[in-house]
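Board notes (copied after class):
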Amino acid sequence: MSNSDYNNEKGSIKIADDVVGVIAGIAATEVEGVAGMSGGIVGGIAEILGRKNLSKGVKVEVNEKEAKVDLYMIINYGVRIPDVAWNVQENVKKAIENMTGLSVVEVNIHIQGVSFGLSAKEEDGK
């Protein structure tokens, strides 16, 4: 696990990659149209065991002053994918930069699936 270090006259601040990953995961799921994050096999096992992984579906690469983020997402059926991806990129970039002071140079979106759950609930309600 790598950390981002900030040194000043009062001491140093270390931000773990996992922290940046959690911030990115939460910011991504706040965007309308995102059904959830795709965690693969490891994420599925953690959920079965009852531990919710807030950085599921997030890969972060943090250097001294900048971060690169890859997000693996599942989106809702019926949304416009480029619009949702753009909103996720903006929300994640803003959240990481505001909370950590790191400069986000890349937010790569990987759509792993489409969730039909939302549209099925809407149809049942009609």
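Comment from the instructor: The beta strands are 3-8, 11-16, 34-37, 58-62, 66-76, 103-115. The longest helix spans residues 81-100.
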